[in-house]
Design brief:
The chain is of the alpha+beta class. It has 14 helices and 21 strands.
Amino acid sequence: MKEAYDFLLKDNLLNNDDYVVVAVSGGPDSMSLLHLLLEVRKKIDINIVCAHVNHNMRKESEDEKVFVENYCKENNIYFEYMKINEYSFGNFHNEARNIRYNFFYDVLKKYNSSVLFTAHHGDDLIETILMRIVRGSSLKGYAGFSMITNYDNYKVVRPLIFYTKDDILKYNKLNNVPYVIDSSNNKDSYTRNRYRHYVLPFLKSEDSNVHRKFLGFSKLLNEYESFLDKYVDSSGLCNSNSIDISLFIKEDEVVQRRVVENILKRIYEDNISIVNSTHVESIMDLIRSSKPNLSIKLPNNIDVIKEYDRVSFIRLNLSKDNYDIVLDRDAILPNGKTLCFVREEDSDSNYVCRLDSTSISLPLHVRNRRNGDKIYVKHLHGSKKVKDIFIDEKIPISKRNEWPIVVDSNNVIIWIPGVKKSKYNKEKNEKCDIIIKYC
């Protein structure tokens, strides 16, 4: 492990009195990393903090916790532990990863540490790259993971990236490093295990140093990634969760994709793995479409909505029910605007409605749009669908479902505030006893 050892001692990565956090499962990879850091501690007076997670999926997990804890006591290593008591019904691996890394982050904060070590190695990198190529990913996704990943308050360091699983096992045997074996790693029901058991042996039979080739491939993609990110950042195209299509289409398609990917990364953060290249393609197709109003759904209740010259990424509030408010006094609406009863009003715009109470059924209500809604538009023979009016008036898709509709007690549409008046609206010189203003 000389290459990893030298890497840890150079460039002031570690300094005397630093606290460093190590993710340790108790398996051969993480125990070799823990041992390697103990060797480094002989040169640099670092404080090692072991962070162990019990995923609570195997009966051996409790014994593994005791094993790791005892090793830490014997070697003067701080021990931090958490047990996952329950999971939701989502993607187990994705959920477990999120819980695990939230715990690691809490441990980093506790010890005021800025370095998290993980035991990802060269075989892991090959598996990750191949799985993402098959599944579909972004340029950064195809690169797998880096030796160092920088976050806002800390960095993740992977010193074992130079080595294969066989290298690690040889190191453990040579240095009498104890470890436990996770039996689930033998199950072909897990996708990663199938790559590990069948694809990697073939690649290694072609070239025993194939992990180095994948490491070079990863570094090259990351270099392109870094250059592209700098260009996209300077363009200002992804400074918010919306895209100005008129500016977007002037860029090369590679830049366009990166803009979309960067917005998705900002929205999904640690859950970005649930979004793949198919989602990106769907968003690109939506932007290219000649239709002015379109929308698609993404995981975790994210809607991508095209409204004429702008595309917005919006998190839906699924708990928001349809609203229906009795309009017998001033009303504050869910969109933040107000319907006010006034005595006089000079304006005759669509933001003002004048009614004769004898020609409608009281009380009035204000509600949001319903499927099949129609209005008898003033000065127009017959009725027209509210949906078509919204399209004609270029009302953004994101605002249509919450747009206020004023109806009488028989559910007859009287007014679409700010958009259209019905045949029941009175002119300024006509008799009326109700005046409502949309503010």
